[in-house]
Amino acid sequence: MSSEYRYIEARQLEAGQEFGRMLRRWRELNSWTQYTAYKWAKEAGFEVMAPSTLSVFENGKAPKPRPESFFALAEVNRRLAAKDFSGVRTRALKDQISQAQPLVDDEGRLWGPADFWSCHLGLVPVPTAYSTPAPPDQPQLEGEEAVRLSEAWRAQLVETAKQHGIGVMEALSSAAKAAPARQRQAFQAVLAGFESYTPEQLEGLWDGEAWLPQRWLEAWSSQAGAS
After folding, report:
1. What ranges in the chain are assigned the alpha helix state H?
2. Phi, then psi, of 112 in degrees rounded to 5
3. What is the CA radius of gyration of the chain?
4. Which contacts (CB < 8 Å, 24+ apart) does range 204-210 have?
């Protein structure tokens, strides 16, 4: 019985990771950042998950998500399919979302909340168009390498802040918010120069292609450039 439970638990973890890669693939095919749907929802007046929550999903770190998350994904999907862009005032944003494609299965059927939920559990397969191979293992780091990465992210923050005329305190605060709540304090401390990441702290912060602090900075930079 215990071995069967462990198998189910492992399969659900794998399904959650596949689901996350699907969400990232869908977003990237539409040339969206993790903030695009969030900014759309704010202007149009509907509910979506926060960028930090989307990041958690995309990295397969949402083992017990709330039902509201799947309804939020389905609402974005519904509006894309219906070309319902009412309430969007920013021209650049409207141009971006109006060119995006909804997520459909291999038969062309639009996904609703039950489909997203079932896929997250592994009950429904990821559509072929959004299927991606499992990412390579996280690189092994020594202490000096972790320090160099920390310094590079710190320099990237400073460069972005200068480029967009953002004050130091504002940059630290707003950039940190791009990270999930449980990672925010450490991320801000690194960006402020109070400490550097250790290899142990970076364990689990690899998404298969890049380090998550890099992703958070890219998301923040994109938001800063659009504001």
Report:
1. 2-29, 36-44, 51-58, 67-82, 91-98, 113-121, 143-164, 168-176, 181-192, 199-202, 212-226
2. -115, -170
3. 19
4. 204/138, 206/135, 206/138, 206/139, 207/24, 207/58, 207/59, 207/135, 208/21, 208/134, 208/135, 208/136, 209/135
Enter the DSSP assignment of 64: S
Tens-place pLDDT, residues 38-72 = 999 999 999 999 888 898 899 888 878 899 999 99
Tokens of 60: 């397969």
Closest CA to 61 of 191, 165, 225, 215: 215
Specify the residue for token string 């912060």.
Answer: 205
Q: Any idea which residue has 């659009």 for tokens? A: 226
Which tokens sit at 131? 């299927």
